């Protein structure tokens, strides 16, 4: 993090980072969740703070220690994450959506624990769509000139999928990870390609999540207007 001290290029900037993974409750004891650890989002928050930014970290179910000098807002569901991100984004210079947001949530929440019934098959779970926070912010920027960054975990044709997603979401940068069983989730290291809406493509070699985070900020800074 020596780099942060040498180069406080985010001084005077407010950045919002989301991290972790949302959980969508079914009943008081169960939820639909995902395997995001929050490490990449926390690395983004730490590196931004080291480079002089005021940082708001919206953490969804991450169990990592709150980074020093960072405002942390803890949330559970995608709907709560949306509210917290929109609130913080209204005065932010950049929004980075590193959180894994559940695309769907159970249509109903059972106030009491769901029980087995003798001789009966379980009821199917009906899901409804969650709001797309990144698309909403990118399409209607809370602050003019705000830089909006998304993350995507892809398999198969990673670059083509990433390029299509960048356009669909309308963000300025999309960090694309290739995922597999042993890759990315919970890992200490990451490898990614950062796609820009201007057509740029920045390959980040396998390395610590801090290094990828610093590359993201390197790409955000020149996009500030
Ligand atoms: N995202 C979001 N709100 C959602 C879903 C995703 O803000 N409801 C954000 C994520 O934080 C991430 C980016 O969108 O920065 C891409 O997430 P991803 O799941 O890859 O995109 P989806 O549009 O949900 O596409 P897919 O069907 O491949 O899951
Ligand atoms: Ca998704």
Topology:
Layout lengths: L1 H5 L7 E7 L3 E4 L2 E3 L6 H12 L3 E7 L10 E5 L2 H12 L4 E4 L6 E3 L20 E3 L3 H7 L7 E8 L3 H12 L3 E6 L10 E8 L4 E8 H12 L5
Parallel strand pairs: 1-4, 1-6, 4-5, 6-9, 9-10
Antiparallel strand pairs: 2-3, 7-8, 10-11, 11-12
The structure holds cytidine-5'-triphosphate and calcium ion.
The site of cytidine-5'-triphosphate has 13 residues, from helix 4 and strand 9.
Keywords: Decarboxylase, Flavoprotein, FMN, Ligase, Lyase, Magnesium, Metal-binding, Multifunctional enzyme
Catalytic activity: N-[(R)-4-phosphopantothenoyl]-L-cysteine + H(+) = (R)-4'-phosphopantetheine + CO2; (R)-4'-phosphopantothenate + L-cysteine + CTP = N-[(R)-4-phosphopantothenoyl]-L-cysteine + CMP + diphosphate + H(+)
Pathway: Cofactor biosynthesis; coenzyme A biosynthesis; CoA from (R)-pantothenate: step 3/5; Cofactor biosynthesis; coenzyme A biosynthesis; CoA from (R)-pantothenate: step 2/5
